[in-house]
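Researcher: I'm comparing several assemblies side by side, and this is the next one on my list. It has 711 residues spread over two chains. Same procedure as the others: predict the full complex and return the structure.
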Amino acid sequence: MLKKISMLLLGALTVSTSVSAETITIATVNNGDMITMKALSSDFEAKHPDIDLKWVTLEENILRQRVTTDVATSGGQYDVMTIGTYEVPIWGKQGWLKELDKLGPNYDVDDLLPAIRSGLSVDNKLYAAPFYGESSMVMYRTDLMKKAGLEMPKAPSWQFIEKAAKAMTDKQAGVYGICLRGKAGWGENIALITSMSNSFGARWFDENWQPEFDSKEWQQTLQYYVDIMQSYGPPGASANGFNENLALFQTGKCGIWIDATVAGAFVTNQQDSEVADKVGFALAPDMGLGKRGNWLWAWTLAIPASSKKSDAAMKFISWATSKDYTKLVAEKKGWAKVPPGTRASLYKNPNYMQAAPFAQITLDSIQSADPKNPSVKPVPYVGVQFVAIPEFQGIGTAVGQQFSAALTGKMSVKQALTISQRLVERAMRKARYPK
Amino acid sequence: MNKQNSQASKLIYTLLAWIIGGLIFFPIFWTLLTSFKTEAEAISASPSLFMFDWTLQNYIDVLARSPYFDHFWNSVVISFGSSLVGLLIAVPAAWSMAFVQNKRTKNLLMWMLSTKMLPPVGVLVPIYLLFRDFGLLDTQLGLVIVMTLINLPIMVWMLYTYFKEIPNEILEAARMDGASIGEEIFHVLLPIALPGIASTLLLNIILAWNEAFWTLILTAANAAPLTAFIASYSSPEGLFYAKLSAASAMAIAPILILGWFSQKQLVRGLSFGAVK
């Protein structure tokens, strides 16, 4: 009898525990690292039986639209949001995000890479924790480079890239010297060309928020981009984004590809890449002006101010961006699958450095990016491949369309820059800059 | 000579219909094929039509990663629910517009249709705020309401067109025999207009099933239908085309099967009154 009663009590206790468990909803993007996080989240649930997780996984642009609507209207649909380094400073300043001040004593916030941490802080307060970080770099075919009789320097110049692209191009064999993003969009061709422009000494705005597309530096940047792509790039390049270029590179159609450091893991993956053992890496190119054409991006986890379960959400973020999570991924999936670019300690780990041949380049690229001083001249904004103002998504895409049209030959470089100057001037006047 | 000509033109039209049908079906066919390939084969520069290593791994991965049946059930509830609720409103509305017309009927019909011309994003914020305040975000009920409202103009227009083809004299005869409005609609109008009503219902189920703006914006983890399921496999950084194809195939299969079985009804209803 006593046994029955104790069993009943235990059962009731279990039921009441499961009933009182708090459910947090996590909105995230569909990429390899996030899929791994979702797959390993049973570890978090085992450590926190009082917290249940619900996942909403979406494509990047749809996710951005959804979380922006939710956070701006205090919808409260999500407790943890995956957002990028573009959103964090804007949303943090608007008071749309909760400060991450309870990440726990073992979190070691000082281990976060300074460049990434600075991009996620407003007035020295951390508003998002980085899940993985990336910069951009040069990926090239070592066999084609050798065949061309050239050797890629660790830190090449744009002049060398052009020379190498020319030497590697064999259009009859379907091999193109260079593959760069051509698809119009603020996160597509503008990410690449803005990063390039920094190394050419150009900038989006002067210190008084006056657009500078009429400068000679922008003329040089865009002319270089259009010339090299028209001469040595693949056909239909104006439709190519990350995935299209990845497919071209993996199937042996590209000599050089300059894009996100995260691609390093894809192009060296024996299962998917036909050129996995013939890939070399180098820093993004420069023009000898002191800035390289590499960007800085991180996918981060943040808590919207409208969340009513911020303590549980904070615990989840602390788990997902901790050093222990890194160890968990290494244990279950291998060191090469560990989310890169967020913690200095990862790059001191010999196991990781051995498993990821692109690790040092990634670290060097991330550390060399400075969101507060992205270009050669001073700027009034934050951001390397973007300008962290709410208007940028609109103007960035509009300018991207002009650049894409220049790439296809529908308009000249000069025309594209003149139109860009005019439309950005108009948008900034409407938004009443300088503020 | 005439017989020969008509046979030749029949052959040309048949051939043309097959070509157009083939062109329309090709993307679906390619999606199905890709869903059985590996990710490497899916992006191959020289894609193979049938000579590749067929695999079910993408389907296994997709089913392991996502709660497909939860999304499926949400799609069923939202599309069937909104179509049935819409029909309950649209039948009497279309009846009154077809048989009890006044000088404002045409304007009213045009106004209803004009709501479809507004880009949905234009009313995103007010609808989102209403949903937030009424606790309808991420609920099946909320989606049924919004889908009903979105598709109502099309339902009313379609039914109005079908009802207009029915001679008023038949309804007048029923009235003369003492039928009430309800009896007139249920016992006289509906049996005659059944093909039109069935095709309206089917078309709206398809429209609601495929709707991918409101269903993505207004849902999160609980009421997300198959459109959200597909969207979770698209990625700008990473090649998941084979998995995306498997997810797409699983999302469109139920509605494709429904369309296949009801195609006679659908075609009969859509061409109702088109040829006199």
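Model: For your comparison table: Chain B has one domain: 67-270.
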